[in-house]
């Protein structure tokens, strides 16, 4: 179209041809409020943009009539797609508790436990044909659950030491599992039905307590270990070493942790006995391991003088704690996020993991070899001079000392409780036979034990401010590790011809393996 020359006197007359033009009608030109005209084609116009046109068309297609929806579902059922849809929704039904809070989960578990307890009481009442009131039954259930919870948490100490009867002449340690080399660590499952043991040659066994049937954990290839996180940083002479010095099992019985000379912590699946993860991080031999009760949190100690925390479920490193000035030899933990460790620097340290703080306890004049929790505020330790010590959290020196508890007599002759003499081939030039290399406590009770290489395992009762000796159980060899059954009905010990961390002594008459001793309770 043609436009006349613009008139400077009448601008409105200049716009009349444009307002009536077909370009403005089609949208290629716009008339603004200020009297100006905005030129633009279809490409530059937002009103006619094909992107917006497609969006509006798609939105219009979303709306369906009820009849159409019913017909689609009926067609899917006829073609068999409805069944696949139900199968896809099944995981949602299985994960119905995925969004519940921690409080709701505790409430659900408590209700399930209460239901199981009531059903068990109901079966017992039906068996003895007893008509008991429901109120009295509920009171008994509440008292039973409260007592169990207090015992598990350590608030109430079970009186087991006073019930232990004197062993008969027929009672004694019997080897149920044999190893080729010295056993360095043993552990029991939470139900006391299965046991685990490790020896210096890297052999890891899983065995049944009642029958003694054993199964071995096979080490995977180097490629598999590397894929599980292992880093080859060891010295050449220890590159392929599988020597194991520490072992621990989680309270739920799912994971087994081992550590040794290769500076790694190896995680195994107890159900399949397969290697699942390797944790690097320590710069020297891993000497001790323990799981926190009721969780999959793992604590480790090493000759690099550090204590580290790991989350086995998430396969992740949590934090580390420094403070020891020499090798860390033993570590233990209860339900709280705390761990105690002892080392050759003559100190025992309480590591408070969330606060990243430590409390230090100093031994009188000896190196500490072993330690364990009695309760959250009481600890037990063994020294290399044959002394067993009782510690309290609020005092930095031992509350009570049992001196020379595992001392050797002259000429390598030991005397048992009955006065009989046992000739044992001890290396008298070495004092390693009197090292208290292991201490153990029956969880939540007052029964404790200590072991060394002098031929005896000592049972003792833990009192308020003292340790009272009970009985001596004869056992030849170096007792490198011990564990009580949760019920207190038996004690297992890992025995070897050599000490745990070296060859400071040798008892050739000893048998390498796991020994068990029954405890008769009144």
Automatic annotation (TrEMBL):
Q: Is Repeat set as a keyword in this record?
A: yes
Each WD repeat, start to end: 176-217, 237-278, 279-320
Segment Disordered: which positions?
Answer: 1-140
Instruction: Write out the biased-composition intervals (Basic and acidic residues).
Output: 44-56, 109-126
What keywords appear on the UniProt entry? Repeat, WD repeat
Q: Which Gene3D superfamilies match?
A: YVTN repeat-like/Quinoprotein amine dehydrogenase
Keyword tRNA-binding recorded? no
Fetch the PROSITE patterns from UniProt: WD_REPEATS_1 (PS00678), WD_REPEATS_2 (PS50082), WD_REPEATS_REGION (PS50294)
Q: What is this protein called?
A: U3 snoRNP-associated protein-like YAO
* Superkingdom, taxonomy of origin: Eukaryota
- The UniProt regions of compositional bias labelled Acidic residues, in chain numbering, are 65-81, 90-101, 127-140
């Amino acid at each position: 179209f043609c436009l006349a020359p613009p008139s400077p006197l009448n601008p409105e007359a200049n716009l009349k041809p444009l307002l009536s033009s077909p370009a403005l009608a089609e949208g290629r030109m716009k008339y603004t409020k200020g009297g100006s005209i905005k030129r633009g084609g279809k490409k530059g116009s937002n009103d006619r943009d094909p992107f917006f046109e497609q969006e509006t068309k798609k939105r219009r297609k979303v709306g369906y009539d009820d009849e159409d929806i019913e017909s689609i579902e009926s067609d899917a059922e006829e073609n068999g797609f409805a069944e696949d849809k139900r199968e896809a929704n099944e995981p949602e039904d299985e994960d119905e508790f995925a969004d519940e809070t921690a409080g709701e989960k505790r409430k659900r578990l408590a209700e399930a436990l209460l239901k199981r307890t009531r059903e068990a009481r109901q079966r017992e009442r039906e068996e003895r044909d007893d008509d008991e009131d429901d109120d009295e039954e509920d009171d008994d259930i509440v008292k039973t659950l409260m007592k169990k919870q207090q015992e598990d948490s350590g608030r109430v100490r079970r009186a087991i030491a006073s019930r232990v009867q004197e062993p008969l002449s027929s009672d004694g340690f019997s080897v149920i599992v044999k190893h080729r080399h010295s056993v360095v660590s043993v552990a029991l499952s939470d139900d006391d039905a299965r046991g685990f043991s490790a020896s210096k040659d890297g052999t890891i066994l899983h065995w049944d307590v009642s029958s003694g049937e054993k199964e071995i954990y096979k080490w995977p290839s180097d490629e598999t270990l590397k894929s599980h996180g292992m880093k080859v940083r060891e010295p050449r002479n220890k590159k392929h070493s599988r020597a194991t010095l520490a072992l621990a099992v989680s309270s739920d019985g799912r994971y087994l942790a081992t550590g040794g000379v290769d500076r790694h912590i190896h995680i195994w699946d107890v159900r399949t006995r397969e290697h699942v993860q390797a944790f690097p991080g320590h710069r020297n031999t891993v000497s001790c391991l323990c799981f926190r009760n009721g969780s999959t949190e793992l604590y480790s100690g090493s000759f690099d003088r550090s204590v580290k925390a790991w989350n086995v479920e998430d396969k992740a490193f949590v934090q580390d704690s420094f403070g020891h000035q020499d090798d860390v030899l033993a570590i233990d933990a209860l339900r709280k996020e705390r761990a105690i460790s002892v080392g050759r620097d003559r100190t025992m340290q309480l590591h408070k993991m969330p606060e990243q703080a430590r409390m230090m306890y100093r031994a009188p004049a000896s190196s500490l070899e072993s330690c364990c929790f009695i309760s959250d505020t009481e600890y037990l330790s063994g020294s290399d001079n044959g002394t067993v010590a009782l510690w309290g959290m609020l005092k930095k020196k031992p509350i009570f000392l049992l001196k020379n508890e595992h001392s050797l007599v002259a000429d390598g002759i030991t005397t048992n409780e009955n006065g009989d003499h046992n000739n044992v081939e001890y290396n008298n030039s070495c004092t390693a036979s009197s090292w208290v290399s292991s201490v153990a406590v029956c969880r939540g009770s007052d029964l404790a034990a200590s072991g060394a290489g002098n031929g005896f395992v000592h049972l003792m009762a833990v009192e308020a401010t003292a340790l009272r000796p009970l009985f001596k159980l004869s056992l030849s060899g170096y007792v490198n590790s011990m564990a009580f059954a949760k019920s207190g009905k038996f004690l297992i010990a890992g025995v070897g011809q050599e000490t745990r961390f070296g060859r400071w002594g040798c008892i050739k008459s000893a048998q390498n393996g796991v020994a068990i001793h029954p405890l008769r309770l009144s």
